[in-house]
Write a sequence for this structure.
């Protein structure tokens, strides 16, 4: 990994050197040895003059592949500088779904120019796909697939694949439709290859297939594809007419993005889809401040609990010293359960109907954890605080208050932590929001209330 | 999603009904309409008698596909009940990498029986793959791929694919090797299909390809495949000899697992690879207690800080009421930064060399967040606590102490939160471990020290 980073820095130096010395042929040869996904990050740090220069050195096909991998800022910069012919050349090389991704990120003026210079078929398809809601299967599909008819023979099918294949994103799976474009089966290239030339598609096609609808969520679509280990998944409209396919590479990207979103939500951040170093500080501020504010205000209620036990605290100031430990342990125990359950929900391993099993599991785990922590803490209080440091305020009674609070805190943290995400899911909220920060705030209030009640009861305070 | 859950419950009922009435033909027809990945979870709840019964109803190919999708407990149960012929039949249908996955999960006795009944080629390959360290590219690869020679024509290649293809996991990409099995190029099925029959492989193959080594990490392997949008990635040994390929479906699974692991680590859980409902409570206890204990002990240091300012607190008990708010806000602000940076690292968007840019970004964001939170909190203290609730202890000076602590807390939380994961990465630790729980513990100590210093200075306490 570190090696890779060093190689990248070395390459950037070499490229800058070539540019400075105007050794363009050598530069072109160097770039042609790399994959598009490796060239794009190298162009990241280039100046506004060098970027188009480097891009124009690339052979047409590689240039288009690199273009797809660039960040939208750089894509826009390049498009602004393209002549109409150059723009058309790049667009002609793009797969439809990549073109749609680019169009989605561009300002209106640039979009107009792109559509003007796309060929009519692509323009129509781009407009078609742009109609689907963001995050739907329709918005990530491509309409470039190979379709076959039941009456074709395998030889006919190969003829069709050879004729139309070069423009299709994938030819590994072909889709069989009837005259009204209803999807009725699919056949893999492997099946075609292993079949006899004169076999009929209708006889060898797979009719027991899985499809998604254009309005299905993109995460559901990607998970379905991943679950069945497909290379592509057909997308149909409400009347089961085939309108597009989602390919495995796009599904992987969707899963990646959705996981990042979940992780951000779990850390109380409003999700953004830009890479960290590309996000400006005001965007970061806007995605972080809402939850910080909300949680700060909720935490003041916890403060109220402390205020209302002011007398107890004044009588036994030693109790204050254990507040951070109780709060942190409660927060950690709760977020362990919450995060495990949230991940289980998003992997479809846990459903709402499992809620009782989940709570029962967490109750038993929480008792094991609580008892262990309480024992460790009791020993620490008596052996270290009292006997080693001679802190006379740490009486066995104080230790009893702290340790019994610990058990109840861990118990309630784990129960709240596992139940809230499932309840959120049930009422249609995003379970990921019910992670550590919210759980911590709730558990803080619970554990401090318990702490002071136990203190009042056992130490006869208040 | 909910619909899906209902459909599952309905199916289970139907299946149990069929079993009770011994309507096996109808049951078989029902199952044959489903995909293997859908049948496996249905078998989850079956009794030890019904499981083999249902399994034996399935046609051979479907049975093998379902077998792969089952949990290892159920696989073991089935294998125990298989006759030798049955075991051999299932094994013959399995792809090599699936067979390896199964062998890895089985107890020694079962492994021996599996190896005894695999055909000699598969046995050799299984033993080969088992040699590679867990989590390496070698351990997730399959050795079932199509290899071609440079001198072959396209027609020869198709002959070879038709002959050997049925047993290969993928034929979409074929690998070109020399006489010593060195990998020298690759050619996609698409290229073969679109080429002339008499074209020579050496002329049409892609020689500019990406490969991984057998000992490369599985996550690195999966990310590489995903980065380049490949359907399979060749795996070579130290002498560049082709030993296997990793296919996109396995790469997706690896990414899924690795993300789950990262999320668990971020929540202070030792990662396990079992689904939640399958993990017994002692395993859960063992994966959760170490961090809880460690963090509990660290949190007692924070308690020491409070103890050492006992006098300040006794003089102004109102200060205690704001401890939870300061601790929670610090923890949340820190984990926002930590989690964002950890995710950026694992997506290769952030490297250690970016550390200064990252810190500078976080400093500016933290000032924006800190000032906003402090302003909101100051207004709340004065308008609500002091004026509305007439809490005379909340003086403007106390508000000043609380709010300036808030700014410094958010500042240090964000700087520590972004820097620690990068430093961990640098020294070869897992950055994911440096997430919320550890950051929270560190930030607690910092923020309370600042709180009491400010209190001493501004309120002249102590």
């Amino acid at each position: 990994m570190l090696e890779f980073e060093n190689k990248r820095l070395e390459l950037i130096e070499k490229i800058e050197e070539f540019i400075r010395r105007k050794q363009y042929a050598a530069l072109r040869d160097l770039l042609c040895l790399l994959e598009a996904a490796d060239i794009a990050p190298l162009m990241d740090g280039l100046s506004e003059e060098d970027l188009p220069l480097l891009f124009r050195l690339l052979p047409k096909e590689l240039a288009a592949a690199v273009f797809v991998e660039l960040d939208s800022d750089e894509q826009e910069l390049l498009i602004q500088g393209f002549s109409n012919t150059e723009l058309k050349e790049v667009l002609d090389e793009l797969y439809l779904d990549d073109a749609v991704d680019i169009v989605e990120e561009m300002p209106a003026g640039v979009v107009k120019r792109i559509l003007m210079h796309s060929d009519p078929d692509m323009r129509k398809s781009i407009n078609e796909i742009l109609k689907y809601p963001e995050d739907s299967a329709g918005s990530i599909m491509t309409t470039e697939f190979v379709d076959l008819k039941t009456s074709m023979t395998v030889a006919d099918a190969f003829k069709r694949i050879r004729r139309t294949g070069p423009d299709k994103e994938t030819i590994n799976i072909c889709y069989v439709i009837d005259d009204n474009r209803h999807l009725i089966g699919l056949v893999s290239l492997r099946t075609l290859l292993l079949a006899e030339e004169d076999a009929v598609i209708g006889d060898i096609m797979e009719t027991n297939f899985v499809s998604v609808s254009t309005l299905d969520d993109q995460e559901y679509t990607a998970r379905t594809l991943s679950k069945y280990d497909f290379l592509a998944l057909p997308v149909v409209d409400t009347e089961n007419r085939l309108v597009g396919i989602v390919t495995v590479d796009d599904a992987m990207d969707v899963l990646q993005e959705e996981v990042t979103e979940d992780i951000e939500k779990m850390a109380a951040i409003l999700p953004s889809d830009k890479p960290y170093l590309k996000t400006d500080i005001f965007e970061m501020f806007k995605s972080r401040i809402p939850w910080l504010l909300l949680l700060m205000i909720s935490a003041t209620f916890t403060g109220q609990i402390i205020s209302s036990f002011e007398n107890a605290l004044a009588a036994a100031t030693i109790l204050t010293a254990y507040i951070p430990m109780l709060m942190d342990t409660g927060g950690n125990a709760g977020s362990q359960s919450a995060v495990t359950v949230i991940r289980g929900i998003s992997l479809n391993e846990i459903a709402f109907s499992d809620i009782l099993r989940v709570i029962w599991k967490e109750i038993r785990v929480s008792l094991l954890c609580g008892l262990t922590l309480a024992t460790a803490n009791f020993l620490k209080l008596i052996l270290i605080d009292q006997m080693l440091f001679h802190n006379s305020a740490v009486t066995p009674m104080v230790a009893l208050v702290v340790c019994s609070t610990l058990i109840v805190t861990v118990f309630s943290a784990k129960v709240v932590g596992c139940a809230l995400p499932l309840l959120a899911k049930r009422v249609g909220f995003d379970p990921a929001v019910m992670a550590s920060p919210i759980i911590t705030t709730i558990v803080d209030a619970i554990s401090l209330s318990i702490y002071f009640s136990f203190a009042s009861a056992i130490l006869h305070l208040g």
